[in-house]
Design goal:
Number of strands: 6
Helix content: 25-40%
Number of helices: 5
CATH architecture of the largest domain: Orthogonal Bundle
Order of helices and strands: HEEEEHHEEHH
Structural class: alpha+beta
Shape: elongated
Strand content: 15-25%
Strand order of the largest sheet: 1-2-3-4
Distance between the termini: 48 Å
Radius of gyration: 18 Å
Mean pLDDT: 84
CATH topology of the largest domain: DNA Binding (I), subunit A
Number of domains: 2
Low-confidence stretches: none
Length: 167
Amino acid sequence: MTVRDLAHFESWLTDRGAEVLDASSEREILRARTSTGTHVVYADKTGKQRWPKELLAIVSDYNAGRTPSLAATKRGGAARRKTRGRYVALTKRDGPGCFYCARILPAPGTHSTPDDEVTTEHLVSRAHGGPDHVSNCFLAHFACNQIAGHLSAPEKIKLREMMRGAK
């Protein structure tokens, strides 16, 4: 099973939260990081493509018109440590409120509900090529971050205005 329109498939992956990565060799057709791992499609010398079984399951969803969440990043220890490290810099720059709803964020590592957990959000989503640099980041509640998903930067600004009640 292959994909007829690879560019459309890559866009579909990105829209669902996966990261399409640069190829690391001339034989790579596609390299993508999804919620199930990093998957690489290769072409052999004859041009025959080799698709990993985990990615074939995703292709099946694509062909069937299903819309699974394929977010490439899971909240783990490294992500929490990075958030703690950026928390001071970002609260100093932006203040202690959530970018979207403006409610005060709990300090990383303090007790909070899962929805109120502090997360680092990217204005230009990493899945859309945005850098993982403090200049592209702000703090948001986990629930607010989930609502925003992989919207474009202007869409995130509009969401912020809506959540804060601006007209």
